[in-house]
Each structure stands twice: as C-alpha cells, then as structure tokens.
UniProtKB/TrEMBL annotation:
CDD domains: Glyco_tranf_GTA_type. Residues 9-136 form the Glycosyltransferase 2-like domain. InterPro entries: Glyco_trans_2-like (IPR001173), Nucleotide-diphossugar_trans (IPR029044). This is Glycosyltransferase family 2 protein. Gene3D superfamilies: Spore Coat Polysaccharide Biosynthesis Protein SpsA, Chain A (3.90.550.10). Signal peptide: none annotated.
Amino acid sequence: MEASNPEISIVVPMYNSSYFVKNCIESVLKQDFTNYELLLIDDHSTDETMEICKNYIKDKRIKLLCNEGKGVSSARNRGIMKSTGSYITFVDSDDVLEQTFLSKLLNIAKGNPRYLPMCGHVRFENGNPDFEVVDSSESNTVETNDLIANIFYYHPASWGCLFQSEVIKKYGIKMEESASFNEDIYFTVKYLCVCDGGIIIPDKLYGYRTNINGIGANKPHNTLTAKDVEHRAKGYYAFQDAIKFSEKNAPGKSVYIDIGYSFMAAEVLLTSVRAGIGEFDLKKKIKKYLSISHCIDFVRHGKNMYQKLLVCGVAINSHVIKYILDDMGLLKIIYSR
C-alpha cells in the first residue's frame, strides 16, 4: 500500500530493538485506519533491528531512516522533521497498539482541534497486552492548567497521544535532547501550553512493555544504583526547557509546570535515598521544588492522594518514606498507576 498524502505520521525510534520491533510494526499494520506513514528511526543499532525492518519497506507507507546515535530524543526529533502527516503520534519500538488506536484518536482530534486526544495504556512484560476497548462515547476533558499541574497523574508520556503537526512545527516543539528522562513528558507539556487542554478517552489502546531490567524508581531498593538516580535527575533539563518554552509562548503556564514538577522532584530525591546516594548532580536545584510553598501548591492543585502524600512526605523526611515504601512493602501503591 502507499500513502502519498498520509493523514497520520507514526514515529518509532529504535535502538537494538530486534527482539520486539516486529511486534510493534505488525500492530501498526493491523490498524483499521490505513492512511498513515510509519517512520522507523534507527539510532545506530548494533543488532538485527535494521535487517528486520528492511523486510517491511515494500509497503510504501513504511520509511526506514538512520539517525546518528544521539539518543531517543534525537531520533524522535528526526521523525518530526521528516514527517508529512497532518498528525503525529509516537510509539516506542517495544510497545504495541490496539487496532483502533489511530481511528479513535483521529476521530477525537477532528472534532476537537484545540484539544490533545489521549488514550489509556496497559502495562505488560511478555505475550500480548489485555487492551480495554470501551463501547462508549464517554471521555474526560481536562483543561490545560489542570492537566499540566497533574501531568504525572493524567498522562505522563508522549505516546498514547495524537498531536497536530501544524502546532508542533509552528511553535518548534521538540524533544529536549540534553535530558535522558521525562523529555517526552515535557514535549507533551509544551504542546499543552499552546492548546486548550486534553481529551482522555477511557479506552486503553496503547500497550506499554515494562522492562524489568530498566532504569526506574520502582525497582527494589537493593538494586538501585547511582546511574538510576542520575538518569532520573536529568529530567530536570526537560522541565527547564518546558519552562522557557512557556515563558516565550504561553505566559502564565510556567506556574503550573512548576507545580507538576514537584512530584518528580520528590521521586528523584526518594530514589537517591532508596539507592543510598547522598549527593548527586542537580540535587540542590531539584530540592527547591519541595519547599513549603511548592508542597502547598501541589496539595492544592493535585488530583492524586498518594502523590500528595509522597511529595509532602519526602519534603519532611525522605528516610521515613523510604522505610514505609521499602520495609513495609508499600512501594507498589505509589507506582501502581
């Protein structure tokens, strides 16, 4: 098939993705909406990723591009630059889509051009995810300020969304390449700054593969390392990039971006305590977002009780929170969403 004028561009960054990328591509090919282009951006893989993808390029909708090995954000930015669709969505190379993902989000986008369509996701490790398709027109419309202040509650990612290419290119919205964490979340935040909000449908149409060996704050504390702390701390650069963007393009939104970051500040500091790391780069800058005033603002605007408790608890005594989450086995409550 060929899409000479694709309506949707699907950007898939890849690095050593040979084990899962076939499942990702196949899930795109099974979409009930077919007028798309699939941009596979390889970031200098050293495994069989490229060879696997070459088996699919007979389909003229699929384009295989090589990046310079600068990381996932650079690969996504390359995809944005090369995209020709009216809309853009991002899919990680180890994730999969339910077959109505594109059609349902596109239907929302066309009827609500000032809002960002979003869907739910399901986590899985192996096999196939148990998607949840809701036979209902019910959706949750969230205005920009509320959504930005609670981005880590409502939708902490760039996947599972359908962005308007015109908006992205008009404002020069890109992934922050100096950040190795949260860069996709703050891409979404920047986009939200220049629209009216988001529309979240109840359907869970995005399959997010959980990497049990990856870098994350929800790992057992005895497996956390300085690398985990450093990785999460670098999300600060994406946060600051979003602040600068809002000050230029959407004055007044930065206060809500500040509020939302308090949760990530608490998570970074908690991760350092759980890993037994006393000092790390950016600690002083990050810690200021757990001041009394920041905690009050987060409690006032926050939607999730557990996130509020985490922010205030870490601000008061992170070692006590570490004891509660690790030694009492309650970590899954915070990271169950």
